[in-house]
Amino acid sequence: MKSDLLNEYDLAIKPFLEAYFNPHSCVQVSTSGSTGEPKLIELDKEKMVASAKATLDYFNLKKGDTVLLSLPTKFIAGKMIWVRSIVGELNVLVSKPTSNPIKSLDKKVEFAAMTPHQVGVCLDENPEKFDLIDQLIIGGGAVSESLLVRIQKLTTKCYATYGMTETITHVAVKKLNGTDQSACYEAVGQTTFEVGAQGNLIINAPHLSHKKIETNDIVRLINSRQFEWLGRLDFVINSGGVKLFPEQIESKLENIINNRFFVWKEKDELLGEKAVLVIEGTSTYLPDLSKVLDKIERPKLTYRADEFIYTENGKLDRKASYLKALKT
Questions:
Q1: Where is the AMP-dependent synthetase/ligase domain (predicted)?
Q2: How are beta strands 213-223 and 169-175 bridged, if at all?
Q3: Where are the domains of the chain?
Q4: Which CATH number does the domain 3-189 belong to among 3.40.50.12780, 1.10.10.1150, 3.40.50.300, 3.40.190.10?
């Protein structure tokens, strides 16, 4: 693609490539804002290259392979598609970062990255296009149980990714379909894992950082290279001494609540904290939650908001959406 056409796809592409090839050792990147205010941080280009090499090795990508760029270059996930392509001498097929980035796909690609929302829309509108994608990583949000069921029919090898801007995208992946489907995330590159005092994941990635990276994710550690993700530490609800993970409750509710929703927490005089349900839309219908939830898991109150609030890169802002629902 001619460089003067790149702006028609993504305004951030040219500025990033110019910054990447300039003499400075670092690149400025915006964090996602999913757990706080977005902020600019500097990433060392050598560390970006190390991350790229780890991904190239894990997915066995070779010189001349083609990767699909369907994520905004403004954020780290899009930037790293370019870095992997530069380091691995891969071809880049640029698509507009829309909800359906494969609508016009007409050639085979060895590797692609999408959000769960993009995968869902593509399955709705052009499921046949997945036959053109060999390997697909899905990041930027949790893969729902319903989406997991749908991708079992694909020949595309699908993986969930775990990581953040500070780890220069993913440091672990989980196979989502096929005979080697797994419930656990497996480390990429030189990464190893341990857990902190609160059961939160601590990342040791010497190829990316000389310091350990302490996260807010609660996990069950399988070994130093594998873990099962349970939920966010800052989302955990301590209800009467029982720890409830909203993400696990949400997965049980997916098939009985049609609207978008999430589980949040409120202070409670008796329990300390209680689970509450926040639903998008004005419908007052609520299914019988006792069919899928134990008594302790069931939200004690239900709130509704006409529309949820999302961060700039499309992630649900739970706190802001909850506060909006309180005012409705």
A1: 31-193
A2: unpaired
A3: 3-189, 237-327
A4: 3.40.50.12780
